């Protein structure tokens, strides 16, 4: 019933270079410095790594890490954290360069979605779905879920109201979205990007590309974000219809819901009913629970997802975040904010408060807050440092990522020139041998073994 699915998460990171000697360094310069060693190794700022992931610097200055394909939410969380470690290592190298050049500055990388100038960058989720004629219906049925899930998985944000006052909001991303469904990412920034690029056998599959999410710092928030979406998708793919939750104005609702820090103010549905984001989430969770009620082999992480989904709704119902205060980013941040402001008697718009909240997103274990908070029991973890460290070089073992990662690793070890993307593996020599891996579920492939053998030739 809950079929195996492929997922991957792309994270764009915010970058700044804080200098203390009056010199300035733009985000572009900092990003180029960050990628110096990547380019030196592979002659490109767009590389696939031996853990199967993609690391690149697109136009603009946001370094991006796209995890390899996973078929288990726990693995995905581990791979996503591995991306942070890889980028943190690059940050340390960049800082060592600066120090060697006598520049009094520090590069910071942030896992968030807004820079100080208000530019937005994303965290995209990818879900493999079977190709079917009613893809658009399914995507539309998911819109109310994506508009409302920010009350559980939003990163938390201090925004400015129209009157210029600071106020707590659920999401950094909600104000930046312009469309429910569209095939253009940059122009209209839709919730679901419907561009048809499956990175797989196009006759069988589509890749659902979700753009609306906030980047998550808490591992449990990533888990819930992807895990709940996966379960709901499974239910829709099995034929359960969700038609009665369509929103009257999704893009208006997404903003109103983000701005209502209680999660309980109603928004209007297409049928005229008025329900809150919490109501919608509770309704969807009830349907999913009903759908999986006869399921005997839910994975441990699926059970954790359902449990956290339920406790998140409970926290909103009771207006008491205690039960999720180490697991959901917005609640973790609200607690952090509360403690700090009580101690120092500061307003929400005090620059020290802004710096504190930003430090929650700083991926550095030394400069950022997350590592210490986890050590003090203020931030939940579901991975171990060992698992994450291993995932920086070892691909997921049960998907196509294994083929790619092993191929990249073998080529790196033998200093062979190759070209790789999500589907293709190619040796750049006179023969130009290429293998196409169109099945993202396949972790074993004789053709790839032959190709790896050809690396030794
Ligand atoms: N068939 C698939 N189904 C679901 N996810 C996939 C599939 N193939 C690859 N992925 C995941 O999709 C993500 C693709 O990342 P990438 O940044 O290359 O995205 P893109 O949308 O193709 O390109 P871009 O970001 O450059 O517009 C990765 O996280 C990868 O693991
Ligand atoms: Mg991308």
Automatic annotation (TrEMBL):
<keyword id="KW-0436">Ligase</keyword>
<comment type="function">
    <text>Catalyzes the covalent attachment of the prokaryotic ubiquitin-like protein modifier Pup to the proteasomal substrate proteins, thereby targeting them for proteasomal degradation. This tagging system is termed pupylation. The ligation reaction involves the side-chain carboxylate of the C-terminal glutamate of Pup and the side-chain amino group of a substrate lysine.</text>
</comment>
<dbReference type="InterPro" id="IPR022279">
    <property type="entry name" value="Pup_ligase"/>
</dbReference>
<feature type="binding site">
    <location>
        <position position="422"/>
    </location>
    <ligand>
        <name>ATP</name>
    </ligand>
</feature>
<keyword id="KW-0547">Nucleotide-binding</keyword>
<feature type="binding site">
    <location>
        <position position="67"/>
    </location>
    <ligand>
        <name>ATP</name>
    </ligand>
</feature>
<protein>
    <recommendedName>
        <fullName>Pup--protein ligase</fullName>
        <ecNumber>6.3.1.19</ecNumber>
    </recommendedName>
</protein>
<keyword id="KW-0479">Metal-binding</keyword>
<keyword id="KW-0460">Magnesium</keyword>
<feature type="binding site">
    <location>
        <position position="10"/>
    </location>
    <ligand>
        <name>Mg(2+)</name>
    </ligand>
</feature>
<dbReference type="Pfam" id="PF03136">
    <property type="entry name" value="Pup_ligase"/>
</dbReference>
<dbReference type="InterPro" id="IPR004347">
    <property type="entry name" value="Pup_ligase/deamidase"/>
</dbReference>
<comment type="similarity">
    <text>Belongs to the Pup ligase/Pup deamidase family. Pup-conjugating enzyme subfamily.</text>
</comment>
<feature type="binding site">
    <location>
        <position position="54"/>
    </location>
    <ligand>
        <name>ATP</name>
    </ligand>
</feature>
<comment type="pathway">
    <text>Protein degradation; proteasomal Pup-dependent pathway.</text>
</comment>
<feature type="binding site">
    <location>
        <position position="56"/>
    </location>
    <ligand>
        <name>Mg(2+)</name>
    </ligand>
</feature>
<comment type="pathway">
    <text>Protein modification; protein pupylation.</text>
</comment>
<feature type="active site" description="Proton acceptor">
    <location>
        <position position="58"/>
    </location>
</feature>
<dbReference type="GO" id="GO:0016874">
    <property type="term" value="F:ligase activity"/>
</dbReference>
<feature type="binding site">
    <location>
        <position position="64"/>
    </location>
    <ligand>
        <name>Mg(2+)</name>
    </ligand>
</feature>
<keyword id="KW-0833">Ubl conjugation pathway</keyword>
<keyword id="KW-0067">ATP-binding</keyword>
């Amino acid at each position: 019933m809950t079929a195996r699915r492929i997922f991957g998460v792309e994270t764009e990171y915010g970058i700044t270079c804080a200098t203390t000697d009056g010199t300035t360094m733009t985000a572009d310069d900092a990003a180029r410095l960050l990628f110096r060693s990547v380019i030196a190794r592979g002659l490109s700022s767009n590389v696939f790594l031996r853990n199967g992931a993609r690391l690149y610097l697109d136009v603009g200055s946001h370094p991006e890490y796209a995890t390899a394909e996973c078929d288990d939410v726990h693995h995905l969380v581990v791979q996503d954290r591995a991306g942070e470690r890889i980028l943190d290592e690059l940050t340390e190298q960049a800082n060592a360069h600066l120090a060697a050049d006598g520049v009094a500055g520090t590069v910071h990388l942030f896992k968030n979605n807004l820079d100080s100038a208000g530019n937005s960058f994303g965290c995209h989720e990818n879900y493999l779905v079977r190709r079917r004629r009613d893809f658009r219906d399914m995507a539309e049925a998911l819109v109310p879920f994506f508009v409302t899930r920010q009350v559980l998985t939003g990163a938390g944000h201090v925004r400015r109201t129209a009157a210029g006052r600071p106020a707590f909001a659920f999401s950094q991303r909600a104000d930046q979205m312009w469309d429910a469904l569209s095939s253009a990412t940059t122009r209209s920034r839709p919730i679901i990007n419907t561009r048809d690029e499956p990175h797989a056998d196009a006759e069988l599959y589509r890749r659902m590309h979700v753009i609306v999410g906030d980047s998550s710092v808490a591992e449990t928030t990533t888990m819930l974000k992807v895990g709940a979406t996966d379960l709901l998708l499974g239910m829709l793919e099995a034929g359960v219809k969700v038609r009665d939750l369509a929103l009257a104005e999704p893009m208006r609702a997404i903003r109103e819901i983000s701005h209502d820090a209680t999660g309980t103010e109603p928004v209007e549905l297409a049928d005229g009913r008025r329900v809150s984001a919490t109501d919608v989430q509770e309704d969807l969770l009830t349907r999913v629970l009903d759908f999986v009620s006869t399921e005997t082999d839910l994975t441990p992480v699926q059970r954790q997802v359902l449990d956290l989904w339920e406790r998140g709704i409970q926290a909103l119902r009771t207006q008491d975040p205690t039960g999720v205060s180490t697991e959901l980013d917005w609640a973790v941040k609200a607690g952090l904010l509360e403690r700090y402001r009580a101690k120092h008697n500061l307003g929400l718009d005090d620059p020290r408060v802004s710096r504190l909240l930003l430090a929650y997103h700083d991926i550095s274990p030394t400069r950022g807050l997350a590592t210490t908070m986890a050590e003090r029991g203020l931030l939940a973890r579901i991975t171990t440092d060992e698992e994450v460290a291993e995932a920086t070089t070892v691909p997921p073992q049960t998907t196509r990522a294994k083929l790619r990662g092993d191929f990249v690793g073998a080529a790196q070890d033998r200093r062979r020139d190759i070209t790789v993307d999500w589907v293709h593996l190619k040796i750049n020599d006179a023969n130009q041998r290429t293998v196409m891996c169109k099945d993202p579920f396949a972790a074993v492939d004789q053709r790839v073994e032959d190709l790896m053998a050809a690396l030794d030739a």
